[in-house]
Design goal:
Layout lengths: L3 E6 L9 H8 L7 E5 L18 H12 L2 E7 L7 H11 L11 E7 L12 H8 L3 E2 L4 E3 L2 H4 E3 L5 E3 L2 H22 L13
Parallel strand pairs: 1-2, 1-3, 3-4, 4-5, 4-6
Antiparallel strand pairs: 7-8
């Protein structure tokens, strides 16, 4: 079966301590036909101002990776306001130039983390609004992971796993739906594995 390639992106660790571990936990070998590749968050995003050149070489590399992917998975801190400047820059890079943006029509899942014990009640976050405005095919609503510090467990060798089974099921089901949307968009047959919680 031909694999669906999902690209996982998050802010640098300076702005989001949970995004990269979350994506790495989800990228473990899973269901046949789906592959989540996590891009190392470019540290240049944490060192630049709002006037960074959208033609920056790192921006061009990100756009190329997003173009090659069948879908995207964006991890971000849960926030009622605007996301961190590094994530805004990343999304702006992917949105520019509008006519050639790899986000247009691309299935995108948004996963957010919070230290709080409960998920917020807001139906949409600013990251979802930005992606919708950019023309992405939002596979949502977002999945929120409360108590992120406890939901993710990182071992000394760098492996990340979920200590919250409920959070793992919600996340994996969201990945499954995103992969299904990517398959449909690419004209690929449905995945053989009908058990998304075993991704």
């Amino acid at each position: 079966m031909e694999n669906v390639l999902l690209l996982g992106l998050s802010s640098p660790v300076e702005d989001d301590p949970y995004g990269d571990p979350l994506l790495r936990a989800l990228s473990a070998p899973g269901a046949s036909g789906t592959r989540l590749v996590v891009s190392t968050a470019p540290s240049v995003l944490a060192r630049t101002g709002p006037d960074i050149d959208p033609a920056h070489p790192v921006a061009d590399a990100l756009r190329q990776m997003a173009s090659l992917a069948d879908g995207l998975v964006i991890a971000a801190p849960e926030s009622p306001g605007a996301p961190a400047e590094s994530l805004r820059t990343l999304l702006n890079w992917l949105s520019w130039p509008t006519a050639a943006s790899p986000l247009v029509g691309k299935p995108v899942a948004v996963l957010t983390t919070t230290r709080e014990p409960t998920a917020p009640s807001d139906p949409y976050c600013e990251v979802e609004r930005m992606l919708f405005t950019a023309g992405a095919h939002m596979v949502g609503p977002r999945t929120v992971i409360p108590r992120a510090a406890h939901a993710l467990r990182e071992t000394p060798d760098g492996q990340v796993s979920f200590s919250d089974p409920g959070a793992a099921v919600r996340l994996l089901f969201h990945i499954h739906r995103t992969a299904a949307a990517a398959r449909e968009r690419s004209g690929l047959p449905p995945a053989d594995d009908s058990r998304p919680w075993l991704l």
